[in-house]
Specification:
Length: about 220
């Protein structure tokens, strides 16, 4: 999946009937500063509010059980202002061979992630750590990541469900999730679209016009 941009993947998923194109909105690359693309299977982590006494507790730190080449995907409670990932976690993740982290929430210690060259994608950053605000509750569980500040009603952007092992691709344009049982089909559709767009681009550069080039090669 690393050969495909997040835009190409989203376009393919839309063509295959996905209502959201796999896009997890409003998560951006905060480390490193240079362009980066990561791709790998999701290792999911569910955070809960520290005040939640009913949610399960982990017996080991979630970084210690992460798998090599995976992408850690963390879902934090919405609108929390603290970070759920810091410099020590990046050090632990690199020691385990983790490819990067995607956070529906905040991180901190930006300078440490950037110095380490570790890919961190998040909604934002903070000076605050996890405690006493949130805690990890479960790993390798489905995450239902809701868009934040999403209007209600039929036009609301749908939530994205990330299952353990789904493919995560993240680059300068954003983050997408590809269900593991759709990977082959997405690659097939994305490959056809890339070939078509190459012909469209060639004609546009030749001065044949955007509308005419679209109609000739895309049929619209």
């Amino acid at each position: 999946m690393s050969n495909w941009s997040t835009c190409e993947i989203s376009d393919a998923l839309i063509k295959l009937g996905s209502p959201h194109g796999g896009h997890i909105p409003d998560i951006h690359c905060l480390s490193p500063r240079t362009d980066v693309r990561i791709a790998g299977p999701a290792y999911t982590v569910q955070m809960v509010l520290a005040s939640d006494q009913t949610a399960p507790k982990l017996s080991a730190h979630f970084i210690d059980t992460a798998t090599s080449n995976s992408i850690v995907v963390i879902d934090a409670p919405p609108h929390t202002k603290n970070a759920v990932w810091g410099g020590l976690m990046t050090a632990g993740a690199q020691a385990k061979g983790v490819a990067g982290v995607v956070i529906s929430g905040r991180c901190r210690d930006l300078a440490e992630h950037r110095a380490a060259g570790f890919p961190v994608f998040a909604r934002g950053h903070s000076t605050l750590g996890q405690s006493p605000f949130v805690r990890p509750s479960a790993i390798n569980v489905p995450l239902v990541i809701q868009p934040q500040d999403n209007p209600e009603g039929p036009d609301a952007f749908p939530a994205v469900t990330v299952e353990p092992g789904d493919w995560i691709v993240a680059d300068e344009d954003g983050v997408v999730c590809v269900p593991k049982d759709m990977v082959d089909k997405v690659i097939e559709v994305a490959g056809i679209a890339r070939e078509i767009d190459a012909r469209v681009l060639e004609d546009i550069k030749a001065g044949k016009g955007v509308q005419a080039s679209f109609k000739l090669h895309r049929g619209r």
